[in-house]
Amino acid sequence: MSSEPTPAAKPWLASEAEGGSRKFAPAVERNRDVIASVLSDILPKQGLVLELASGSGEHAVHFAKRFPQLQWQPSDADPHALASIEAWREHEGLSNIRKPIAIDASAPAWPIDRADAVLCINMIHISPWSATEGLIEGARRLLTPGQPLCLYGPFLQAGVETASSNLAFDQSLKARNPEWGLRAVEDVIALAHRHGFGHEKIVSMPANNLFVALYV
To answer: Which residues, other chains included, contact 106 with Cβ-Cβ below 8 Å and sequence gap of 6+?
Structure first.
């Protein structure tokens, strides 16, 4: 994300007694398997997956276990998240997950020059639009034809009634920060097309979320 999130925006819980630096995000346990199910049809058979805004790091270690043939590169802009990711990496002892790197999605340059897929879960709605712009621009620099940028989270969608829970969530986000809020998936896709992504796949997910794969 473009800046360190406020405490109210961090979706994780500290576990000082058991986990040390490891954080626990309750949403991860609820959504990791359904996300992995979609990823299994989209990710390459081998290569490097860059995850932006990895948060607690729980998704990264879960997917590294689920897809052992892939190398996983977690990242975040928040030092607390980076510490949690590294703690999870050390705890799990997985050989196919790299040390986390600091990436501000909105920055004009990232400390990585290639990836075979880019994944971003639950960032777009809790960051300024500039972070989405940076995410798409940065992913396009890394990806080659046929490779995907994978997004997951709550979106607004034309012609689809927005769940009352998502409307309330959108209002609560904007109350915290006027630059946050649920984005129209059509706006995200239009932005991607302007930056060289050619087509997309949208999958409806549980709990009023969408999975969006944008292909170069």
So the answer is: 1, 2, 127, 128, 130, 131, 133, 134, 135
